[in-house]
UniProtKB/TrEMBL annotation:
GO terms for molecular function: methylmalonate-semialdehyde dehydrogenase (acylating, NAD) activity. The keyword Nucleotidyltransferase does not apply. It comes from Pseudogulbenkiania subflava DSM 22618. Its EC number is 1.2.1.27. Keywords: NAD, Oxidoreductase. InterPro entries: Ald_DH/histidinol_DH, Ald_DH_C, Ald_DH_CS_CYS, Ald_DH_N, Aldehyde_DH_dom, MeMal-semiAld_DH. Residues 18-481 form the Aldehyde dehydrogenase domain. GO terms for biological process: L-valine catabolic process; thymine catabolic process. Transmembrane segments: none annotated. This is methylmalonate-semialdehyde dehydrogenase (CoA acylating).
Length: 502
């Protein structure tokens, strides 16, 4: 491809310098509302990946010895810079990804919360100490950084998810190689620029761009010790298997099919409002979107009111701050519309059809309007697959037990919710549901960074989640030291060949 002089190229970050890739393979970054080419992103070469990892490996030698206070102060400065540039970051994100300006600010803000948490690293990276575990013997543990770590991030949260990864990895003393989504890397790169401005030293944070070849290079590189991934189940499973076989520590947050149970005793107005927002916000392009509502008993009579709320949502370009923006690409739009067609063919009732939406002045946009199916059952493509678009599937159940059984039979376990005013029902739900993140009258139960993202089952590979206390364990190695200091006068001078009993 011959590069246009009018379209900027996205740079690599290697050893503190933004450099032009020497690759011959480039991809367009396209505004999903207009099809305007915003920039071109390189598919980095193997040599460029190697250079980024080498820079990180060299920087680790000094960074791991940097005091906790010095690391924390960088992230205090970084969170201030993100706040100062919030509007700018949101505008970039909206242009390349499509989500509304308000939602884009939310994307940045949820990442900012993790940066704030990284500034508390002094309290998070504490070890343990026990005195006199045996006669004159003390034992203590320390949490030491691993070395070079890497992150592979998806298109749907190009600010939040990179901020889930590199701040905590770097705050715990590691160095990092980030591979953003090639579909929308611009806001990620602006965040990286601000991170350098905050004081992250050369080589501590590096960025490479690319597709499968770069992902495989990261999985295979001997000097990368740990990989964090967020994205599709197909790619996540590949990353987990390939990187694990290469001896790396890996965490993969993957696909989902999140259900909400709506009991007839729920506050109808609040439940329908929250369900509508959680299903259609971000055009359904959230791994935590509520994509299936299980209407229990008389709650199935609320479908007309739910449809009316969805119909009232405004579809348009993200810069105009509508309710629903475009999906990320033409390919994504075609896939969503294909699944809607399959839903009709397989017998689900199409209560609201969002296909063919035209927005005046943005006729080339990748718009799909809110879509609702009722009568959805397992075995239908719209139920079994993660649609990743503004499509809500409605199923029916006679009892709470039946609804719980339906959810637990689904292989995914990212998030779930229940809408009810019954404490007994809510307690039963939270105890019996086999899903890692549970909301009670909370539609998208993503925990704040004091906790950890705890998706489960087929939605996650690896034992430890991103951010929070769990990720400190992920990015560190626990080293346990057992010590005894002898008093020469008290030494018996005898050789002991048995296991000590005291």
């Amino acid at each position: 491809m011959t590069l246009s002089t009018t379209v900027p190229t996205i740079k690599l970050l290697i050893n503190g310098e933004f450099v032009e890739s020497q690759t011959s393979v480039w991809r367009d970054v396209v505004n999903p509302a207009t099809q305007e080419v915003l920039a071109r992103v390189p598919m980095a070469t193997q040599a460029e990946v190697d250079a980024a990892v080498a820079a990180a490996k060299t920087a680790f030698k000094s960074w791991k010895k940097t005091s906790i206070g010095s690391r924390a102060r960088i992230f205090l400065k970084y969170q201030q810079l993100i706040r100062e540039h919030m509007k700018e970051l949101a505008a970039i994100l909206t242009a390349e990804q499509g989500k509304t300006l308000a939602d884009a600010e939310g994307d940045v803000f949820r990442g900012l919360e993790v940066v704030e948490h990284a500034a508390s690293i002094g309290n998070l990276q504490l070890g343990e100490y026990a005195e006199n575990v045996a006669s004159g013997v003390d034992t203590y543990s320390v949490l030491q950084p691993l070395g070079v770590c890497a992150g592979i991030t998806p298109f749907n949260f190009p600010a939040m998810i990179p901020l889930w990864m590199f701040p905590m990895a770097i705050a715990t003393g590691n160095t990092f190689v980030l591979k953003p989504s090639e579909q929308d890397p611009m806001v990620t790169m602006r965040l990286v620029e601000l991170a350098l401005e905050a004081g992250i030293p050369a080589g501590v944070l590096n960025v490479v761009h690319g597709g499968p070849d770069v992902v495989n290079a990261i999985c295979d590189h001997a000097d990368i010790k740990a990989i964090s991934f967020v994205g599709s189940s197909k790619v996540g499973t590949h990353v987990y298997n390939r990187a694990s076989l290469n001896g790396k520590r890996v965490q993969c947050m993957m696909g989902a099919k999140n259900h909400a149970i709506v009991l007839p005793d729920a506050n109808k107005e609040q439940a329908l409002n929250q369900l509508t927002g959680a299903a259609f916000g971000a055009a359904g392009q959230r791994c935590m979107a509520l994509t299936v509502a299980v209407l229990v008993g008389e709650a199935k009579n609320w479908i007309p009111e739910l449809v009316a709320k969805a119909k009232a949502l405004r579809v348009g370009p993200g810069k105009d701050n509508p309710d629903v923006g475009p999906v990320v690409s033409c390919t994504a739009r075609d896939r969503v519309e294909s699944l809607i067609a399959q839903g009709v063919e397989q017998g689900a009732k199409l209560e609201l059809d969002g296909r063919g939406v035209k927005v005046p002045g943005f006729e080339q946009g990748n718009f799909v309007g809110p879509t609702i199916f009722s009568g959805v059952k397992p075995g239908m493509a719209i139920y079994d697959q993660e649609i990743f678009g503004p499509v809500l599937c409605l199923s029916a159940a006679d009892t709470l037990d039946e609804a719980i059984e339906l959810i637990n039979a689904n292989p995914n376990g990212n998030g779930t919710a229940i809408f009810t005013q019954s404490g007994a029902a809510a307690r039963k739900f939270q105890e019996e549901i086999d899903v890692g993140q549970v909301g009670i009258n909370v539609p998208i139960p993503v925990p704040v960074p004091l906790f950890s993202f705890t998706g489960s089952r087929a939605s996650k590979l690896g034992d430890l989640g991103p951010y929070g206390k769990q990720v400190v364990l992920f990015y560190t190695q626990t080293k346990t030291v057992t010590s005894r200091w002898f008093d020469d006068a008290a030494s018996s001078g005898k050789v002991n060949t048995t296991i000590s009993l005291n």
